[in-house]
Amino acid sequence: MTLHFIAKDPETNGDHCPTIWYDDQAREFVVQGWDPDEALLARCRQAGPIPPGEHVVRIPARMADVLREALDVADRTAVR
């Protein structure tokens, strides 16, 4: 597995902040984010249950460029 570090939230001090990676073997995005509050979890559950082993995390919209970069990395490393 090659885990590509993409970036941390650019508006934090670098500790304990949302982060995005791309795993090119599993072809998955790995996201570190903030815990949601109960109100947000309740809204998310309206779409269906959150099964064991899955989690909801929040990342700020200011990381849109980071998400685009992660998508670009995924495209470049994809085996077609």
Mean pLDDT: 90
Q: Assign the structural class, choosing from mainly alpha, mainly beta, alpha/beta, alpha+beta, or little secondary structure.
A: alpha+beta
β-sheet strand percentage? 15-25%
Q: Main beta sheet, described?
A: 3 strands, antiparallel
Strand order of the largest sheet: 1-2-3
Distance between the termini: 17 Å
Order of helices and strands: EEEHH
Q: Which runs of at least 5 residues are low in confidence (pLDDT < 50)? A: none
Shape: globular
Task: Say how many strands there are.
Answer: 3
- Count up the domains: 1
The percent range for helix content is 25-40%
Please explain how this structure is put together:
The protein is of the alpha+beta class and 80 residues long. It has one domain. It is built from two helices and three strands, in the order E-E-E-H-H. It has helices at residues 38-45, 64-77, and strands spanning 3-8, 19-23, 28-32. The protein has a three-stranded antiparallel sheet, with helices on one face. Strand 2 (19-23) and strand 3 form a beta hairpin. The protein is globular and about 35 Å long. It starts with a strand and ends with a helix.
Task: Describe this protein with a few key phrases.
80 residues; alpha+beta; three-stranded antiparallel β-sheet; 2 helices; globular
